Sequence to fold (700 residues):
Amino acid sequence: MTRALMIGFGSVGQALVNMILDRSGKLAGRGFSFQAIGVFTRTRGNRLDPKGLDLKALLYDISAHGKFMGETTDMAALEACRTLDYDVLIELSPLTIADHGEPAVSHIKTALSRGLDVVTANKGPIAFAYDELRDLARKSGGRLLFESTVMDGAPVFNLVSRCMKGNAVTGFSGILNSTTNYILTRMEEGDSLAAATQEAIDAGIAEADPSNDVDGWDAAVKTAVLARALMGAGIDPFDVMRQGIGNITDEAIQNASARGKRVKLVCRGWKENDAVKTSVAPEELDKTHLFAGLSLFDAGLCIETELMAPNCIIQKDPTPRDTAFGILEDLLSLDERPKEAGCAGNHPCA
Amino acid sequence: MTRALMIGFGSVGQALVNMILDRSGKLAGRGFSFQAIGVFTRTRGNRLDPKGLDLKALLYDISAHGKFMGETTDMAALEACRTLDYDVLIELSPLTIADHGEPAVSHIKTALSRGLDVVTANKGPIAFAYDELRDLARKSGGRLLFESTVMDGAPVFNLVSRCMKGNAVTGFSGILNSTTNYILTRMEEGDSLAAATQEAIDAGIAEADPSNDVDGWDAAVKTAVLARALMGAGIDPFDVMRQGIGNITDEAIQNASARGKRVKLVCRGWKENDAVKTSVAPEELDKTHLFAGLSLFDAGLCIETELMAPNCIIQKDPTPRDTAFGILEDLLSLDERPKEAGCAGNHPCA
Fold:
C-alpha cells in the first residue's frame, strides 16, 4: 500500500487520480495499491484522512464545486509534510522562480529528511536545489524521482539512469516549452506575436501573464533541471543564458520561412572545458532539422553521450495524462524496489 | 567479475571489447570487471581460456591477421555453450532467416537452460523464438537481454520495460533498416536503384547479396522482434506483411519529391481487435513527417501506448559502437541486479 500526501490538485493531480482509479484492477495485479491520506491545495482547500481519502469524492468536488467540500483542515502544507504518516510525498505545487522553487523545496526537504520518498512534477526544486535534495536523499534513505518535470511523462531522467548506465551525458538540445512552440507555429501561419500569444492565453495554454513562457523562463528552468540532473552542472535557472521570443517580429518568422527555415526556441547544454554551459534562445533551423518537425505542442530532446550517437526523444502532442503517467511510473518504481536499493532514483546508485 | 562466452567477433564484438578496455577504469569504479573465457567465430577461429583471454591480443590478431593466432580449439560453439564455465553468453552470430534464427536459438536455449544469463544483439532468436526463450529464462532463473537487436544500443526494450511500467504498448512505427534508408536517400539525390544499391554494397553497408535489406527481410525481422517483445504477438518474420523497395522506380522517387513527399520503408505494428498486425512497406511521407527527416543511416521508432501520447526515439547516424554500448549496458544491468530479482530482463517481473 502506497500512502501518499499530495500537494497540489490541478489538472495533473486530477489526471493522476483518475488514472489510478481507472486502472485500479491492473495496478492491483502488479501489487500496487494507493491511498491519499492528505491533499493540500492553495485555493481549493485541504483534505485529510489517515485512513485514506475517497478519491472519487475529491474529483467530484473539484468538478462540481471547484473546491473540496466537507471537513477541511487549516494545517499548513509544510506542517503536513513534517507530521503526517505517509510513504511518499507527491509534490505538484506550481513552479516559482523569484522564490527559487519555494515552498516546494521545503516540502521536499522535509519529507526526504524523514527518510520518506518524493515524486515531483514541479521542476522548481530540481532546478534550484537538486544537489542538496539528492544528497539529503542519499543520507536519509528517502528517494527522489522527478520524471515528469521535463517533457511530461516521456522518459528522460529514468531513460538516462536506467537505460544508459556506464555512459555519460555530454550535451543536450531540446524544444521544451509548448507555449512558445505554439506561438511560433501560429506566427508561421500568419498570426502576429500579440495575436498568437492572446490565442494561447484564451486557449488556456499560456497563463494570463505569459511572460514566464515568452521570456524563456520556463525553458530556462527545464534547461537547468537537465544540466543539473544529467550533467552534474552547478547552476540554477538564473545562470542559463536566456533569450525569449518577445522581440521576434512577424517579418522575421515569414522571412525565415521563405528561406526554408523555421524559428524555434531551443534549449541547449554543452561542455566547455570542464564546465557545463547552457542557453535558451530562438534559432533558425533548416526545415530538414529534426526539431523543425515539431509543431504546436510537440516536444523533443536530443541527448549526446560519450558512447553513443545522439538519441532523441520526441513527444507528439502530450496532455496532462502524460504528466500523470510519469508520476504513476515513478510511484510504481518506488513501490517495486526495496528502499535499501536506493538506486531506483534518478541519481546513480553510488 | 562477469565471465563471458562470446559467439561472434565481428565489428560489434570488437567494438564491445574495445569499449570495455577503453573504459576499464570507469567500469571498475562501478564494480564491473569482465573476462572472456571463450570466443567462438565462424571464420576467424575459436579461442578458449578458463582464466580469461587476453582481450588486446584478440583485437590485435583480428586487425593484423584477420583471424585468431596461437592455440585454438575445435570445440563446437554449441558444445561451448553447454559445457564451459561462464556467467553470461554474448550471442553475436549473424542473423539467419531460412534457418529460423538457428544456430543462435540453440546457443541461447542451451545457456538459459543452465540458468545462465544471455545478452544478444542477434535479432533472429528473438524474432523466431522469443516466447520460448522468455519462458525458459523464467523457469531456469537465467536472464535474457537484447537491447541491441533493434536500433543498435538506443533504448527500446529497456525503455519500455524500465521506464513505462504500468503502461501497455498498443502500436509502433519505425524506420529501422539503414541500408534501404541509405538507398532511398541516394535515389532522391538522383541515383538509380541499381547504382544506389551498388554504392551501398561498395561502402560495406549492404552485403554482397543485398536482398535481405532490399526485399524488406531485415525490417520484417525487426518488426517481428518489436511485435513479440513489446506487444506479445505470436508471430514470426514470415507473418509480417512485407514489401521491399526492389520495385521502386527512380521516377516514383522523383515524383514523390516533386509533390513534397519522401519515400521511406516503414515498419508498423498495430492492434486489430485483439490481434497484433504487422507490416513493412514503402510509404510516401509528407516532408513534415517526423520520419521524413531521417536520412541515410538515421533510424527512428514511435511507440504508442495506452496512457501516453506517442513517444519516439530517433537515432542520428549510429555506428557499431552504438550496438556495442547496448550490449555493455545490458551486461552492467545484469551485473548490478541480484539474479533472483529476475526482472532486470526485458520481460515483466511477473
User: Anything to note?
Assistant: Chain B touches chain A through 50 residues (CB under 8 Å).
